[in-house]
Design brief:
There is one protein chain. The relative contact order is 0.16. The chain is built from 3 helices and 5 strands; from the N terminus they run αβββααββ. Helices cover 36% and strands 14% of the residues. The protein has helices spanning 2-18, 67-85, 94-105; strands at residues 26-30, 43-46, 54-58, 110-111, 117-118. The chain binds zinc ion (ZN). Zinc ion is lined by residues 76, 80, 94, 97.
Length: 133
Amino acid sequence: MKKLFEQLIIKDVDFIKDQGINFPDIIVEQGHISEFPKKRDFAMSIYNGKYEPVVLRYSPRLLEQDFGTIIGILRHEFGHIWFFGHGNVKTHTEVQADKKAEELFGTPIFYNKDYIQTIYPTKYSIRPHHLPK
Ligand SMILES: [Zn+2]
């Protein structure tokens, strides 16, 4: 699973870079379960400065999700990372990260029954309002 997971990330990042889009380099690392205390916490992207790679740290629980959810969560993070690469580290929103992911990959982000991003179609195509903005 982990090998496939890494290939998914490389494929998506290559897809972005192949379009000539300015996108930061990323270091992907598995974090400790304790760093992801909430049920919906699966990944975080950490900005380390303009000339440093972004660290994309994921929960071991991410690997237990279905394919669509793993991709949905990663693409949401890529949305955040795009903003990091364009000088907007702190002020962009969660909704904007979803929208940027949709724009980068040309496919919608949905929310599953646990209110988590997925690329598999569901009836929730807009970020549920009770989630952090
Ligand atoms: Zn987010």
